[in-house]
Each structure stands twice: as structure tokens, then as C-alpha cells.
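dumping this here so i dont lose it
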């Protein structure tokens, strides 16, 4: 049996930790699938088990791209009239000239037409400085370096048809469609352009048929992802076309109807994660317009590529070798006759079908089983344990607490960001020498140089080394590192009301409240420490009180459940536990470890300790109201939920408040689901007997996941706010994703 999380985390010699190096792997793609949609994704080096030495070190930041709001210094070659001078006013001239191109070109020549390589980096060039008439004279140019400038777009008619290598790193590019003018391009660098997203990576792969490398990495996996998306989008647009044409009345004009079809397709055809919506809508519009222009009612799959015929020939040879070289693309061997979790789900043996004896409405189907954290990219790695997962906040305004279908998972030296619908690993962040224990999301509103507001999803990740890494997921880099604790960090939690307030709980028995601030124009965070909370034991779970999150913080600890006053208007910046909560016999004993803690609604708390086979539902308001001046308070129990009798610890429960649901894994690989709405609606006194789960989601048998899997223990299970997707983590290095079947 694998070592348990908190016994493993504190083991190992206290030697010097490895230097911090980190990298993002974007657009890993879905790869081949087995019968249950199993995907094995790429992974890098193994994680360190060594605790940090305790020496104070300055945080090492990933090199950020140039700032959004840096003042623009005068570009070389600009001329203007001085104040007081006579004569006509001279307009600013562009910094590029034939003389400058000759000076910076290779091989050395006095003719522009013979230059093959040109370095225009670091000249503070603006988009309007790229003169097409001048650059089009570079008839033989094959390599162009435009990095470290201030380009927002590329002119669409530069006339560099033979260009093979283009460097545009560290600019302000916001669109990549102009790159289609370089059909021979093989290598491209776009790092450090903060406004480019994963969708732009896919557009690049689609527009440039001969592209082999992007940002120094092989582009084959992205090409494969584009082909899969392309195929699915074409199928969906075709189906939408047929449905649209069938509903068209003879009186409607053909031209207007065709225009309406393009609009409706862009509006209604959806596929893939929200982070790829820009690419999918872009392709849907292109496919729709071609479909309308052709006048055909069907588009065959052979017509999917929008590129010239030679594109297919270019893509084919570079897709095939990837599957044979990368172990990460080999699916887990799932035998077809071992499909599990089919709807309707099996109920708990001997328990009622639902609260009222009817068939439960909640039904889940397995979508994906991914092994995306394995060290050395080996499907045989079952030792890299997964510790935490969290759903990204929704981007729609006015939806407080809503989450998307994008989930972040952590384990070993990697943090992965996964789209639950497609099973694609959208991003992967690796920090050799680290072991990540916790992740938490926040959404920040920043203002660009042009005065536009942009919303950033920032992911905080922390673990063994006591560092908090702030990851700008969509731009794909680490914005900053906070040296939060000298010992390992067990868990993280953002405040639900203050987007920049972050709680960190460490093995040093302290909880610290940080204000990470808003990043400056160089994408750097300047975090400040607001409060230090002292605990008598290690805090395992953090939970701001739902009805007053700015006032009190609950924590499930090794020694019980504690509460702190976290009001910032109080003078003390270092505080001890305000209240310790104790549980009656039959639920949780006083002083017993509390390894599960979450609010079911604004008043009801779900908590779990190890060894007693129950989950306790208790009232915050009634418990706090009975406190008086006591430092130890017995909780007011509302109900108990029947759970596994295991003596193993560190199974984290979670809740879905909008659905009135409690979730928890167990040692057998099961997921226990409780619909507690009927319990919350009851008037006291409630039933004393523990309530059985509404249903248990069964994990596939070990032989169904491959002969090497001998044990599957669900450490953590989380659902998004609408309970559409459910993500479970196991001690066997597998991320499992289920989808809800709506009744």
C-alpha cells in the first residue's frame, strides 16, 4: 500500500533543494483513446522527495515578457522639429532603411536581394514601421528576427514568400492570421506575447502547412489536435447545415438564408473547451462560408482540410512517428468488455434507490482516464501520487462561484490543466525537484497599455518546497514565486470575496494570509503578508466561513477543527486559534484528525475524520451561537452520512452547494455521492442513524485499467458548480473524469 500523503510529505533528509526550473507544455492534445477514452499524456522528470534545507533564498522568477505599459522610447531614426526651429515640420520617419537592413543582414552584401538572414530584434519597432515596399525587396530572405520589439500586428503584404524561420518573441501581438502569407515557414517563435492564447497556437498550426517547430518544440502534437478538432467541427457544421436547410421555407431568399446560416452556425456550433472557443468559432465561420459558397448539402470528411492538397502530404509523415516514439501517447489497455459506470449506476447494496425510494436523477458516465503526471512519461509509473484538483472560475460576468469545465490537477513535479469535455491536457507546468500538494484558482482583472480590461485566470500551486508559484495559465508562464514557508505547504485557498487574498497552510503549523496583488506591466507579483495564524497542529483543509468569509476561517487539522478571526481591521497581525470545535461520540471524537471540510450551503458544514465511517453535517450558526466566551465548543450536529469504515486517512471530501451534494472517495476506488437536500429541508429533530449515500460511483476493476494497476484509492473528488463534470484523483497516478447525463 502506498505511503499516505502526510506521512510521506514529512519524510526524507533535509538536504539542499534543487534549483527552480519550470516550463509549460501547451496543447498536448488528446492522443489515441481506449474503450473508455483513456489518454496517457507526456510527463517529464521525477519529483524530489527531499525537504527544503530551510536556508532563505530569493525567489527565482520565470523571465516575463515585456510589459504592457512600458513607456515607448524614441525609436532609432526618428526625426522631428525642435521647439523654436523654423522651417516646415518634419513627420516622424520609420526606423527601417535599406542601409540598416544591409548592416543587419547576412551574408554581407550591398544588395538587399542577396540577404538570407536579417536581425531586426530590439529596435522598439511598431507595426507601422514594417514597410512592405522596403521588405519586399528581400527576395531571398529565409530567416527574420523581429523579437523584443513592440509589434501589435504584422502587415499582411510583406512579400517574404521564401521565409522559413521567423522569430516574433516578446512583442504585443494579438493576432496570428497574417502569418498565412509565409507558406514556407518551418520554424516560428511567439513566446512572450501575452495576448496570444492556445487558440492562436492552433490557428498557427492550421495556417502554416510546413511548420515543424513552434517556440523550439515539435509541432506534431498540435497538428494532430487541429486535425481532430477540424474533423469534429466539420461534422457538426454539416449536421447544422442539413437541419437548417430542412427547416427553410420556399419563400425565404437563398442569399439571406445563407447569411443567416453562417451566423447561426457560429452561434450554435460548439465543441471543445472554452479556452479554444476563439479557434473553434473561427473555423466554424470558415467551414460555414465554404459550405454556403459550394452550394452543397454535405461536406465529406475527405474535404475537411481547408489547406491546399499538399498540406495533407506534409502533415501525414510527421504525425505517424510521434505515436511510435512517445510513450505518453500509448493508451492504457482497457479491455472492451470491462466498461464500467454505465448509466444507470449501481446503487449501494441494501440502500434505498433515492431519498423518496425512486430512481436517482443523477447519472454519470465515464469520459476519460488520463495518466498525465507520470514521471519519465512512463505508463508503468504508479508511484507518482496525485493530491489535489480544482475547477477554473467561469469567465461569464455576474456568476459568482461558478466554475468552468477546465480543471487543474497536481501531483509529482507537474501541474496539468485539463479540459473535461475533450480530455485534452491544455497546459502542463513542470518544476523539477518539486512535489505539488495543492492548487487554487483566482480571476484577476488587469488593465492593458491601451486601457482595455482583461480577465486573467491565475493558478496558485504549492507543495514540498514551501514555495507558491503563481501561474498565468492562458499566457503560459510563471508570473512569480512567493517564498511562503520554510516547510512544505499542505494546502492553499483563495478568499471568495477578495480575489488577491491567498491563505497558505504549512507543516510549520502556521497559516498565512497573503495579498498577492495585481501584476505590474512586467507581469510580476509583489505579494505582501497580511496575517499569521498559529495552529497547534498541521492544517490539512482551509475553508472560509460561507456566511462571513472576511471574518472567520475554518481549518481541518491533524488535531481537530479550529477557527480563526481573520478580520483585517484588528490590530493583531499574529493570532492564535479563536475556537476549537469538538464532535460528539458517534461522529468524530475530540482531538481527532479532520481531513475533510467544506460548506454545503451558507450554514451547513460537512466534515470528516478518519476511522469512524461517518461524515458529519453540522450547523455553523447554531454552533457559533452557543459559544459564549468558551474556547472549546461542541458542534450542533444536524445529520450523519454513512461512509467507508477504512482507517486510512487523507480522503478529501468536497461539496457542490448549488446541487446540495456531498462527494468523497474511498480506499476501494469508489466515489460516494450524497444528495443532502432532503436532509437540509427537514426540521429538527433529525434521524440519528447515519444516512446512506444516494449512490456509489464504482471505479473500474484493476484488470480493466491494465495489469500493472494493482490498487486504486480515490484521494480527492471534485465536481464543477453545475455538477456537469466530476474529476477524481487516485493513488495510482490516474485522473478520472465523469460527465453527468442530464435527465
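and the seq i came up w/
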Amino acid at each position: 500500500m502506498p505511503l499516505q500523503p502526510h506521512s510521506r510529505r514529512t519524510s526524507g533528509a533535509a538536504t539542499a533543494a534543487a534549483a527552480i526550473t519550470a516550463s509549460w507544455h501547451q496543447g498536448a492534445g488528446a492522443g489515441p483513446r481506449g474503450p473508455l477514452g483513456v489518454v496517457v499524456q507526456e510527463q517529464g522528470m521525477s519529483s524530489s522527495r527531499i525537504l527544503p534545507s530551510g536556508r532563505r533564498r530569493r525567489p527565482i522568477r520565470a523571465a516575463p515578457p515585456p510589459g504592457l505599459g512600458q513607456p515607448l522610447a524614441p525609436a532609432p531614426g526618428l526625426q522631428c522639429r525642435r521647439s523654436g526651429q523654423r522651417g516646415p515640420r518634419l513627420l516622424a520617419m520609420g526606423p527601417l532603411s535599406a542601409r540598416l537592413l544591409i548592416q543587419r543582414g547576412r551574408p554581407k552584401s550591398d544588395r538587399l536581394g542577396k540577404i538570407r538572414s536579417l536581425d531586426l530584434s530590439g529596435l522598439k519597432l511598431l507595426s507601422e514601421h514594417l514597410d512592405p515596399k522596403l521588405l519586399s525587396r528581400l527576395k531571398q530572405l529565409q530567416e527574420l528576427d523581429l523579437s523584443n520589439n513592440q509589434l501589435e500586428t504584422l502587415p499582411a503584404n510583406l512579400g517574404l514568400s521564401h521565409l522559413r524561420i521567423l522569430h516574433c518573441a516578446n512583442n504585443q501581438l494579438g493576432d496570428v492570421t497574417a502569418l498565412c502569407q509565409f507558406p514556407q515557414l518551418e520554424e516560428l517563435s511567439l513566446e512572450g506575447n501575452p495576448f496570444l492564447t492556445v487558440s492562436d497556437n492552433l490557428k498557427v498550426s492550421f495556417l502554416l502547412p510546413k511548420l515543424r517547430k513552434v517556440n523550439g518544440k515539435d509541432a506534431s502534437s498540435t497538428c494532430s489536435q487541429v486535425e481532430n478538432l477540424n474533423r469534429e467541427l466539420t461534422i457538426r457544421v454539416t449536421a447544422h447545415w442539413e437541419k437548417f436547410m430542412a427547416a427553410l421555407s420556399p419563400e425565404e431568399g437563398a442569399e439571406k438564408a445563407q447569411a443567416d446560416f453562417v451566423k447561426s452556425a457560429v452561434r450554435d456550433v460548439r465543441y471543445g473547451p472554452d479556452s479554444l472557443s476563439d479557434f473553434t468559432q473561427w473555423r466554424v465561420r470558415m467551414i460555414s462560408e465554404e459550405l454556403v459558397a459550394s452550394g452543397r448539402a454535405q461536406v465529406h470528411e475527405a474535404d475537411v482540410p481547408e489547406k491546399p492538397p499538399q498540406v495533407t502530404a506534409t502533415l501525414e509523415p510527421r504525425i505517424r512517428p510521434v505515436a511510435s516514439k512517445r510513450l505518453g501517447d500509448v493508451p492504457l489497455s482497457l479491455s472492451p468488455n470491462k466498461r464500467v459506470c454505465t448509466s444507470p449506476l449501481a446503487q449501494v447494496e441494501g440502500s434505498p434507490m433515492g431519498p423518496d425510494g425512486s430512481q436517482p436523477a443523477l447519472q454519470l458516465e465515464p469520459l476519460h482516464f488520463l495518466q498525465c503526471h507520470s514521471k519519465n512519461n512512463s505508463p508503468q509509473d504508479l508511484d507518482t501520487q496525485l493530491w489535489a484538483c480544482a475547477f477554473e472560475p467561469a469567465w461569464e460576468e455576474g456568476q459568482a462561484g461558478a466554475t468552468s469545465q477546465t480543471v487543474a490537477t497536481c501531483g509529482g513535479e507537474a501541474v496539468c490543466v485539463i479540459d473535461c469535455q475533450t480530455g485534452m491536457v491544455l497546459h502542463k507546468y513542470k518544476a523539477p525537484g518539486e512535489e505539488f500538494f495543492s492548487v487554487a484558482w483566482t480571476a484577476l482583472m488587469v488593465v492593458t497599455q491601451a486601457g482595455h480590461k482583461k480577465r486573467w485566470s491565475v493558478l496558485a500551486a504549492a507543495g514540498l518546497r514551501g514555495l507558491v508559484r503563481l501561474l498565468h495559465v492562458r499566457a503560459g508562464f510563471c508570473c512569480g514565486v512567493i517564498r511562503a514557508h520554510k516547510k512544505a505547504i499542505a494546502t492553499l485557498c483563495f478568499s471568495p470575496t477578495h480575489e488577491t487574498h491567498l491563505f497558505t497552510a504549512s507543516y510549520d503549523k502556521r497559516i498565512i494570509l497573503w495579498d498577492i496583488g495585481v501584476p505590474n506591466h512586467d507581469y510580476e507579483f509583489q505579494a505582501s503578508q497580511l496575517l499569521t495564524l498559529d495552529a497547534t497542529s498541521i492544517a490539512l483543509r482551509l475553508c472560509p466561513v460561507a456566511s462571513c468569509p472576511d471574518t472567520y476561517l475554518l481549518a481541518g487539522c491533524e488535531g481537530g477543527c479550529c477557527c480563526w478571526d481573520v478580520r483585517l481591521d484588528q490590530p493583531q497581525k499574529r493570532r492564535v486559534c479563536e475556537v476549537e470545535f469538538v464532535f460528539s461520540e458517534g461522529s468524530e471524537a475530540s482531538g481527532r484528525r479532520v481531513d475533510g471540510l467544506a460548506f454545503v450551503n451558507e450554514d451547513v458544514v460537512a466534515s470528516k475524520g478518519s476511522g469512524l465511517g461517518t461524515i458529519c453535517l453540522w450547523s455553523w450558526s447554531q454552533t457559533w451561537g452557543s459559544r459564549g466566551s468558551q474556547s472549546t465548543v461542541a458542534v450542533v450536529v444536524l445529520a450523519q452520512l454513512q461512509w467507508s469504515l477504512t482507517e486510512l486517512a487523507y480522503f478529501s471530501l468536497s461539496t457542490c452547494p448549488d446541487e446540495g451534494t456531498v462527494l468523497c472517495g474511498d480506499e476501494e476506488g469508489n466515489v460516494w455521492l450524497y444528495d443532502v437536500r432532503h436532509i437540509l429541508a427537514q426540521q429538527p429533530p433529525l434521524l440519528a442513524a447515519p444516512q446512506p449515500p444516494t449512490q456509489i460511483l464504482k471505479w473500474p476493476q484493476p484488470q480493466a485499467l491494465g495489469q500493472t494497476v494493482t490498487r486504486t484509492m480515490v484521494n480527492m473528488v471534485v465536481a464543477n458548480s453545475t455538477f456537469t463534470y466530476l474529476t477524481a484523483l487516485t493513488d495510482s497516478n490516474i485522473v478520472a473524469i465523469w460527465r453527468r447525463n442530464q435527465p
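The two ends are 39 Å apart (CA to CA).
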